[in-house]
Amino acid sequence: MRSSDKSKKKFLKSLIRKQPRDLLLVIGTGVSAAVAPGIPALFIQCLFCSGTLRRGGFQVLGARGPYKMFFFFFLQRTGDTKPNFFQDCLMEVFDNLEQHIQNPVILHSILRLMERGTMVLTTNYDNLLEIFGQQQGKPMESLDLKDKDKVLQWARGHIKYGVLHIHGLYTDPCGMVLDPSGYKDVTQDPEVMGVLQNLYRTKSFLFLGCGETLRDQIFQALFLYTVKNKVDLEHYMLVLKENEDHFFKLQADMLLHGIKVVSYGDCFKQFPEYVQDLTAQICKQKSPDADRVDSTTLLGTSCVDCAKRKLGENGTDSPKRIKQSDNGIATI
């Protein structure tokens, strides 16, 4: 992108002023499509997430071009929708996804935010983020709502590199959720629902590649329709702005859910770079705890005893605070 194009990028001030630890990323199929474009697995994933496919009988609605031909090829091969066929299809189209990664910019950005405390949940069945993170040496962990203890730990911020798959993961076909009844036990568990709903009240959700997420019945059951006074909340959604009338209508509709709609551009190709630049803006924000660092931290462990002796000699409660300037030089 040319520098003149970059200057036109607009970032919502209230969003770029957020600390990473105050954000929760909701990752949709658009992220995977940007990272690994053109593979049939992501089209099938999109159909699952939108509720188009069901275990009892696959239906393809609105499928176009090569994807339509690809999926009908599977159906015509067997005409079977039994669980073993279901599992074979998933493994055939989802396996070795890492070989299809062409554009990891968004994944880099997400990991950068996770390093600084941002939480991540996804409606995707793929584990592209976890695979990529492990390649970068991060202890990534895939979680789903069946494991109550893990969900509670994640929701309380104790699993830094955990990714919560609210629909399950393709590696466990029996655990994949295709409708809200699949998580009836979860939605009826007051402890789990309490911590999840608290996230929607206390974190700013940032929706990435989530065109249909708010229509997703599982997401609605977990967050959207169970949290009161949503208009007072501050969540964000990045969307493609193809049509101004549709965009402004979406903005108005989403405000009812406490969600501010932000355009990343008028072309899907702009999405990865916008996320990258947005992440850079957010990570530029100085932590409110940055000035609360005592001298022993900045001087290193070798100076701990010196600092303690100074405390005793001066009879004060604390040594003079040492601040670090932008050029990395410590000053008093």
TrEMBL record:
Query: Keywords in UniProt for this one?
Result: Acetylation, Membrane, Phosphoprotein, Transmembrane, Transmembrane helix
Q: Which InterPro entries match?
A: DHS-like_NAD/FAD-binding_dom, FAM118
Question: What Pfam family is a match, any one?
Answer: SIR2_2
Q: So where does this one cross the membrane?
A: 23-44
Regarding protein family, the annotation reads: Belongs to the FAM118 family.
Query: What name does the UniProt record give this protein?
Result: Family with sequence similarity 118 member A
Q: Which organism is it from?
A: Otus sunia (Oriental scops-owl)
